[in-house]
Amino acid sequence: MEEMEEELKCPVCGSFYREPIILPCSHNLCQACARNILVQTPESESPQSRRASGSGVSDYDYLDLDKMSLYSEADSGYGSYGGFASAPTTPCQKSPNGVRVFPPAMPPPATHLSPALAPVPRNSCITCPQCHRSLILDDRGLRGFPKNRVLEGVIDRYQQSKAAALKCQLCEKAPKEATVMCEQCDVFYCDPCRLRCHPPRGPLAKHRLVPPAQGRVSRRLSPRKVSTCTDHELENHSMYCVQCKMPVCYQCLEEGKHSSHEVKALGAMWKLHKSQLSQALNGLSDRAKEAKEFLVQLRNMVQQIQENSVEFEACLVAQCDALIDALNRRKAQLLARVNKEHEHKLKVVRDQISHCTVKLRQTTGLMEYCLEVIKENDPSGFLQISDALIRRVHLTEDQWGKGTLTPRMTTDFDLSLDNSPLLQSIHQLDFVQVKASSPVPATPILQLEECTHNNSATLSWKQPPLSTVPADGYILELDDGNGGQFREVYVGKETMCTVDGLHFNSTYNARVKAFNKTGVSPYSKTLVLQTSEDTDSEEQTLPFPVPSERLPLRRMSPFSSTLNLQPSFPGRSYFDFRSSPHQLSLHSSLQSLNAPGCNFETQSAPYSQLVDIKKLLAVAWFAFDPGSAHSDIILSNDNLTVTCSSYDDRVVLGKTGFSKGVHYWELTVDRYDNHPDPAFGVARMDVMKDVMLGKDDKAWAMYVDNNRSWFMHNNSHTNRTEGGITKGATIGVLLDLNRKNLTFFINDEQQGPIAFDNVEGLFFPAVSLNRNVQVTLHTGLAVPDFYSSRASIA
């Protein structure tokens, strides 16, 4: 029954109801608390004065009138209590149980009458502290509200059922045990509260204080108050008005207030409403029972989740520990190999040291003996042994011949640990869902679809004709062209992918597999792409007829959306995957355009196909790469024109990388304002994108203003040269990887000496600029004639 206690407490004082009254909104208040929260309204705002003056009710004053139609005079029977008004503007307070209440506008008048009989101020307004609905009292004041005798009886039974010692009703925090009860005040006091709140002097000296147990008995034996009519206090309720939903007395019926209403016997309606409440409680009881069962289920779930979490964590820790143990075992094996190599190197070097030490000691001894012989003055004796000594000296000298003074072992360890596949597997280590029962897809069929410019090939794949298991997607893998490990370069639902910019004179292996929710299919047959070194621009005849389903040759157009995949090949940077609604293009930074295309032929091996890409012109066609550009870079004109939205220098790279051959491209200045200093050159893929090109060790550049230029690498400025750029100027960049140098041109004239020597590796065309510059890239250009002639002379 303790859960019911909140229903038995007043929202204003927070204590059990004392003489509760029922408001029109069906909420209850102590009669004394109701008087304390009365607020007096101005005369002009009362409904009576408004009706007298003929003015209508404004929306501002009666905001809740429509919502409160349940309690209007026409349908609720409470119309005699006055109309609803707007909530008073008096600052609100909070009762002990947190409900917002309004304080009285003025202190109650000094009177010796009881709270129920004391007059209330004219045009008083009361606001329910629970639903905040307001109404103005009529002349009867609080006497116009019915008393809730049922609630009083429930409170009495609840208090009688509590077996614990009676507590003080005035303690603010932890109530102490009551020591006395005042019969007149009907309040239990502890000693401190009695001395503070009920001193034995003045009018309180006449009150009778009894022990708490006797007070409880007196409360229990006090006669139950009979509910009387609110309009006729001397009459008891005997009938029930169905339309007004309230008990009435005979005098109310005789006065004709309910003459047209349906009236029934009070006892019959009492039994009917008890039956209806019991039926409603049955449904609510079922819901409460279900809620209790649901709470039990949730608590069991909490316990089960905790147990499963502990078990799962233990399993995860065991799996990870197993991986760590396997890694430690492999580490020990690798360390053993390193130690073996270490011991072998030391043994070889120590053996050579020992051997050379013995020979050096013998040689030194022979030299000292010969010097002593030379000191002899006996010619005949000297000549007897000189020939033999000369032969020994020459023989010893020959023993120190070629290779004798060369170390038999290098200090370097010819071991290289490739941990990238393992790291990738660790990064991809993740949880999987419960395995499905459906089978995995069939092995897809991989084939070459077409050849394009810049050593490019389009690969396509499909499911076998009789396959019935659908695939959710495909995984295309490609090696690095040097027989290295495969890397995932595309994962998705498409069945076509274009690989462009492959290295010349290289052999690439491609394979594909399908996957669904169950698992992954076996790999397809390996497709081998063999690129050619021949720079002849004429097309060669294919060794056999071209399949009719192959598409015609064409150059791939740029695509708008990009996705960068990072399976880095050793020394070959990464793949940049580009997609469109119709076709996929896989741009590889492995591009090295020394020579064009190749032929298409098959290999006799049962599990692979060999493809030699078609020969094309030995020039590079490329554009700027949006995927590698700084976020402030603005590209247009099919990614050939670039500018910037920032006043700071930002970097953008070309989408083609070079590692062999001679390559030349130009940039024209479309806009040049406020004398900025853009930079042009080449860079690694991981160059810093938010500073000027050449500030770090990943870029080699020339930056130039309107008067002069400088070469810059690793923030080192060299070779200041007179001559700058303006709008319309042309900057040429010549990358000669055969001679390993980089040269710059302005308006077809070489700018300064050769900018950089000893450039090796994979380089991307690069530009850095700010918002004051706009340049356009021109590619597919042949090497300038004067450079070609100079190179041939050299």
UniProtKB/TrEMBL annotation:
SMART domains: BBC, BBOX, FN3, RING, SPRY
Pathway the protein acts in: Protein modification; protein ubiquitination
Boundaries of every RING-type domain copy: 10-50
A GO MF label: zinc ion binding
Keyword Ribosomal protein tagged: no
EC number: 2.3.2.27
Main location: other
GO CC, any one term: dendrite
Domain B box-type residue range list: 163-212, 224-266
CDD domains for the chain: Bbox1_TRIM9_C-I (cd19843), Bbox2_TRIM9_C-I (cd19826), FN3 (cd00063), RING-HC_TRIM9 (cd16755), SPRY_PRY_TRIM67_9 (cd12889)
Entry annotated with the keyword tRNA processing: no
Annotated localization: Cell projection, Dendrite; Cytoplasm, Cytoskeleton; Cytoplasmic vesicle, Secretory vesicle, Synaptic vesicle
Gene Ontology terms: biological process: autophagy; defense response to virus; innate immune response; protein ubiquitination
UniProt KW keywords: Acetylation, Antiviral defense, Autophagy, Cell projection, Coiled coil, Cytoplasm, Cytoplasmic vesicle, Cytoskeleton, Immunity, Innate immunity, Metal-binding, Phosphoprotein, Repeat, Synapse, Transferase, Ubl conjugation, Ubl conjugation pathway, Zinc, Zinc-finger
Coiled-coil segments on the chain, per record: 288-344
Top-level lineage group: Eukaryota
Domain B30.2/SPRY positions: 601-786
Domain COS: start-end pairs: 374-432
Subunit structure: Interacts with SNAP25.
Protein name, per record: E3 ubiquitin-protein ligase TRIM9
Natural source organism: Aotus nancymaae
